[in-house]
Amino acid sequence: METVLLNTDAIWANRLAAYPDRFEGPNLEGEAVDVPTHVELIGRAGVLIGGIDCVVTLEHDGDDWEIAAVAYRSEFGGPGHDFDVARLRNRDPDGTLADMVEREILRLVDGQYNTLADAATRQARIG
Question: What is the dihedral of CA 95, 101, 102, 103, to 10 degrees?
Fold first, then answer.
């Protein structure tokens, strides 16, 4: 069995190609940006549960963007919700439907991190 290692140099080269002045550019430390996105919740057997429109708050810590909060609303309407990402990551699952949905939304949003971080960089640089 062959083990394949993730080539982080290729990942960073891709990010640096998009923003060649990433390290020499304006200091974004302390910036906070809200970036809209959309995720699809998929149930067992690939059944679409529904689409979720999200606004992801990213905060820059001086090195890179961190997902700080997520506000979401079902595309079918109803009340919106938001959650603090650090608090969700640091607490044990409580088994409630709301907790499971928030964790799944965060997993899906985490999967979009590079796209969200790139959008946040563009927005922060515009001012």
Answer: 70
